[in-house]
Amino acid sequence: MKGRFQATAVAALGIATLMFAWVGAAAAALVTLRKGTTEGIYVVFWALLPAIAVAKFAQDVGPLCMLLVSAGAAIVLRNTRSWPLALVFSVFGGMCTALFLQQFAQDYLAAILATVQPMLDQLRSQSAGRLPQILTGDIAAVIGSSTVLWSVLALMLARWWQSLLYNPGGFRTEMWSMRLPAVATVVLVAVMLLIGRMGEEFRFWGVMCLLPFLAAGLSLIHGVVGRFGLGRVWLVVFYIALLLLGPLWGLLILAAIVDSWIDIRRRLSKTA
Predict the structure, then answer these.
(1) Within 13 Å and on the Cβ side, how many CA atoms surround 44?
(2) DSSP per-residue letters across 108-144
(3) Which residues fall within 8 angstroms of residue 149, CB to CB, at 6 or more apart?
(4) Which of 239, 102, 212, 97 is nearest to 149 (CA)?
(5) DSSP-assigned states of every residue in 61-84
(6) Of 271, 113, 241, 257, which is closest to residue 180 (Cα–Cα)?
(7) Mapping DSSP to helix (H, G, I), strand (E, B) and coil, where does residue 53 land?
(8) Full-prediction pTM beyond 0.85?
(9) Domain boundaries defined on the chain
(10) Where are the transmembrane segments (predicted)?
């Protein structure tokens, strides 16, 4: 945050390293959140150079897509101060990423599919053919979902940095209170249902719409534990259970949907 050169260097170097591309995207998002769209675009512009180079020479469009979507989400968050809108924008960015690849980069998707096909064939043989045949549209969905996930994580990291520097405790307050409004829930569910009717190529695209519900569900859990002073042990137990019990993910999504309509934290506060 000392100047353009430092911010640009961190963002560009992070993007270029692949493994820490999300840190580079977070650096660009931090500049946007703190100093505004103009300064953010300046940093993003120079970070685009290594991102494009990675896409061209390393055949990995992930850093490029993540940089653009996280920067856009940062602009939305700065201007609206709404995490739900930023999450919805990230889903939109992931959808656009998958759609662009599906329409204009079939060779790229086919190359990725050819690379992972031996592993997929082995899994199909082990599952006695129960594993569905993977299509290029499924690869596009994976890249789109990854874009949404890592863009949101980069934005959260940027917001956490901003809180540490300028507003201690602000990030925790935001995360404890984040919930999807009912309108956003209806839109996301409607998009999932529409995508489900678009054909086999789009069968996994709806996963992108689930990510905001997961973020809101985790926020609900953290908010309840934090506000009632239950201690971190409860969070540790919850995350262990989340890793071991698959159905718990569905319950987390359902809790986020219900919370968007009845505001569970507010109701619990009234009864406490």
Answers:
(1) 25
(2) HHHHHHHHHHHHHHHHHHHTTT-SPPP-HHHHHHHHH
(3) 211
(4) 212
(5) -HHHHHHHHHHHHHHHHHHH--HH
(6) 257
(7) helix
(8) yes
(9) 1-178, 180-272
(10) 37-54, 83-101, 134-158, 178-195, 202-221, 233-258
Asked if residues 135 and 53 have their Cβ atoms less than 8 Å apart, the reply is no
**What's the pLDDT tens digit per position in 237-252?**
999 999 998 889 999 9
Residue with tokens 């890592």: 150
Could you report how far apart the first and last alpha carbons of the chain are, in Å? 42
Decide if pLDDT at 42 tops 90: yes
Under a CB-based contact definition with an 8 Å cutoff, are residues 178 and 215 in contact?
yes
Higher pLDDT, 118 or 73: 73
Predicted pLDDT at 86 = 96
Return the structure tokens found at 208: 């992108």
> Which positions ≥6 away from 70 have C-beta within 8 Å?
25, 26, 28, 29, 90, 150, 151, 152, 154, 155, 158
Amino acid at residue number 266: R
Q: In Å, how far from its chain's centre is CA 201?
A: 22
Q: What is the per-residue pLDDT across 83-134, written as a single tens digit (0 to 9) for each?
A: 999 999 999 999 999 999 999 999 999 999 988 888 887 877 777 667 777 8
For residues 145 and 151, give the distance between their C-alpha atoms in angstroms, rounded to a whole number: 10
* Amino acid identity for residue 28 in this structure: A
Structure tokens at 266: 């507010």
Continuous H helices in 181-263:
182-196, 207-227, 232-244, 247-262
Q: How many residues are listed for the chain in this entry?
A: 272
Using CA atoms, how far apart are residues 55 and 60, in angstroms rounded to an integer?
5
Structure tokens that stand for 252 in this block: 């987390």
Angle between helix 106-126 and 83-104 (nearest 10): 100
Across the chain, what does the average pLDDT equal? 90
- Amino acid, single-letter form, for residue 196: G
